[in-house]
Amino acid sequence: MSQAAEKFPSPAEQTRAALVHAGLRLFGRKGFEGTSTRELAALAKANIGSIAYHFGGKEGLHLACADFIVETIRAIANPALEQAAAAISPDDAAERLKQSVERIVGFFVASPEVGDFAQFVLRELSVPSPALDRLYTGVFEPTHRQLCTIWEQATGEPAESEATRIRMFTLIGQVVYFKIAREAVFRRMGWTEIGRAQAALIGAIVSDNLSAILASRKGGKS
User: Fold this and answer.
1) pLDDT tens per residue, range 89-121
2) Where are the alpha helices (DSSP H) in 11-57?
């Protein structure tokens, strides 16, 4: 394959990507049942028949949207998480955990596309479908499990204890809040956007929170 072919997606790939982005937006805002194939095609500026051609129908596009979220989040999180099973020192594990949180902050707080991701995920959590299974098995469960493993390496506390699993949910939750409660944050903070400066401030405070927790838990303290 030529470098030009690698750099520029084909018309078919562009159509497929446009349909996935249209699906993320419409499924997230209106739900699966409330979204028509006509609306999806119109937003993607594609022929209505392209949904069946690329995905086999609306159900296939819905699952493809979940798969896209999984692939995107894996690409963000994996560099800091991929060696979670390796034996490392507590200090190295603490640093890896901080790096993971920094990546989560940078993605969830500052990336514009996460608005559609968040809406899609929230819709799935409130009205579960096979797409939620893709999200859970593809990214939620493995990412959470890896974070728990790194926590054990950093503190000595069992990765699969209830306390550790809850701590990782609270760690992720304080970041996700800035996306799902975006409008409340804007009003209270007097912000009109979350740009680099705001994201950096959020990241620094979340990192401080994590450092304080780690300092109190090292050595498996109860």
Assistant:
1) 999 999 988 888 888 888 888 777 778 888 899
2) 11-30, 37-44, 49-55
